Amino acid sequence: GMVCTHASELYALALICTLTLGLYYAFDIPAALPSHFLHLAGGHQTVYELLYSVYALPNTILPLIGGVLADQALGLHRTAVLLTSFVVFGQLLVTLGVYLGQFSALLLGRFTMGLGGETLYSLQPALCAWWFESSNQPAAMAVALTLGGVGETINFALTPAIAREYGVAGAMWFTCVLCSVSFAAALTLWRLARWDRGWACAPAHSASSERRVRLIDPAVPAVSVPLHATCVEQRKQLGTALSRCVNHCTCVAMECRAESKQSITVAV
Question: CA-CA distances (angstroms) from residue 205 to 36, 61, 109, 181, 237?
Answer without folding.
Answer: 60, 48, 50, 35, 21
